[in-house]
Write a structure and sequence with these properties.
This protein is 56% helix and 7% strand. Strand 3, helix 9 and strand 4 form a beta-alpha-beta unit.
């Protein structure tokens, strides 16, 4: 479970709520996820169509969800910082919390901004400050909980440092009637002054079982023809990213009537396990020139990206019997090559580095056997 860095304090709310017109009119899109139209429900992206509507629908992280739910029920919701890899349920969780907290007034009581688009200091000083400075309104059965509004700042790690420092002051100033939820992939990019004002929860990659269960639900709802090996391929390629899993499933079923393992790998362009096994065999048994030429030919004929080959080789290395003192340097070398490929270098040079790393590994294995 995510670590809680400071004790959550009770929310300070006014007994008599006052209706104050906001200084600036906000659109529905600015206040949160707009309701889906019937057309979008039929043909839109499944990542939105099957976004969890309640906390019970969130695929995993039950410990985090239970903690946030308890703080909400006890009227003690602190400022939140949710961080972790993409597609792990951060945004879905806080939106589900907001729907439970505000009920039918959900759209009026939250402001959602994507900091990768609106990340300048002007946005913090204008939209956020205007929304946070207005006092809350009481709404019938939701009176106690609806007095405190919620600002969701997605991809907060894309904000400039000046904007983050400005946000720090606004959080302090409007804590009485507003709660902030910062969502990011890299918590190290959030300034310490903001981190210390929030309760942090880390969302790790989803376990394969949780991804599989959610995919099975979508397959049943959409009445898809998906084979067991096709489903396993989607789960394996998603790497704990539910958004990626749903996108792979939707794109594959649009391209092929039957979602099989071959169809999944063909649609995504990833190398199949058999192709990775063949590449590893070339790297460990062929000469430098032969292995290099064979991999280039396979990449060209199959349309493979070298970064995908390197990424799939890393877990495959653990299936090969070799001493740890040889395996570890090889894994580290593959990780370095993957990192360099992310910045767009010459693929031929990186392929040469890949073949060279395995050539050194083969020499080390022969020496160890002697």
């Amino acid at each position: 479970m995510g670590e809680m860095e400071e004790e959550a304090t009770a929310m300070e709310v006014d007994d008599g709520a006052v209706d104050v017109d906001p200084p600036r009119k906000l659109t529905a899109a600015q206040k949160g996820k707009a309701p889906m139209t019937q057309e979008l429900q039929r043909s839109g992206p499944w990542v939105e169509k099957y976004r969890p509507a309640s906390l019970a629908d969130v695929a995993a992280h039950k410990d985090i969800i239970d903690t946030i739910d308890r703080l909400t029920a006890e009227n003690k919701l602190p400022h939140l910082l949710l961080y972790g890899p993409p597609g792990t349920g951060k945004t879905s969780t806080i939106l589900a919390v907001a729907r439970k907290l505000y009920g039918p007034q959900f759209q009026n009581m939250i402001l959602e901004l994507n900091a990768s688009d609106d990340r300048g200091i002007d946005v913090v000083r204008q939209q956020i400050q205007d929304f946070a400075s207005t006092q809350s309104i009481s709404f019938g059965n939701h009176r106690e909980k609806a007095n405190v509004k919620l600002i969701i700042l997605d991809e907060a790690d894309a904000m400039t440092k000046d904007a983050q420092f400005s946000l720090r002051r606004i959080i302090e100033k409007y804590t009485k009637n507003t709660r902030f939820c910062l969502i990011c992939n890299y918590v190290s990019k959030i300034i310490p002054a903001l981190q210390s004002r929030c309760t942090r929860f880390r969302f790790p990659p989803l376990q394969a079982q949780h991804v599989r269960e959610r995919l099975e639900f979508v397959i049943d709802q959409e009445r898809l023809d998906v084979t067991e090996d096709g489903l396993s391929a989607i789960v394996r390629l998603s790497n704990g990213d539910m958004r990626k899993a749903l996108n792979i499933l939707q794109s594959t079923q649009m391209a092929e009537p039957h979602v099989t393992e071959a169809a999944v790998y063909s649609c995504t362009g990833n190398p199949t396990p058999k192709e990775i096994e063949q590449i590893a065999s070339w790297l460990l048994n062929e000469s430098f020139q032969s292995a290099y030429s064979n991999i280039v030919q396979l990449k060209t004929s199959k349309g493979l990206a070298l970064v995908d080959v390197v990424r799939e080789l890393q877990p495959f290395i653990f299936t090969i019997s070799m001493p740890g003192n040889i395996r570890v340097p090889l894994i580290n070398c593959l990780a370095d090559i993957e990192y360099r490929l992310a910045s767009g270098p010459n693929e031929k040079l990186q392929l040469g580095a890949l073949v060279s790393a395995f050539t050194h590994t083969r020499v080390a294995l022969v020496s160890a056997a002697r």
